[in-house]
Specification:
mainly alpha, 3 helices, 0% strand, elongated
């Protein structure tokens, strides 16, 4: 029997929350690559400095409850 939208959302939610620590770790590790990539652009020092400041301060934050409700609503459209 096929899963209901609620069951699929619950399954996705469980998988996502289980991987959340890994996602956060990957995001933190990617920051230096993101900054290095932006440094290779032709933009000036002010733009590059602003980008570096923002990326360095940024944190990964996902609201998995919000994701679950939005995903469910979208799948019902």
């Amino acid at each position: 029997m096929p899963l209901s939208i609620e069951e699929m959302a619950s399954k996705g939610y469980t998988k996502a929350t289980a991987k959340d620590a890994s996602i956060r770790s990957s995001w933190a590790a990617a920051k230096t690559r993101m900054i290095a990539g932006y440094d290779a652009t032709p933009f000036g020092p002010t733009r590059k400095s602003n980008y570096k400041s923002v990326v360095s301060a940024a944190t990964h934050r996902t609201d998995w409850d919000k994701w679950k409700s939005h995903w469910s609503a979208k799948m019902r459209e």
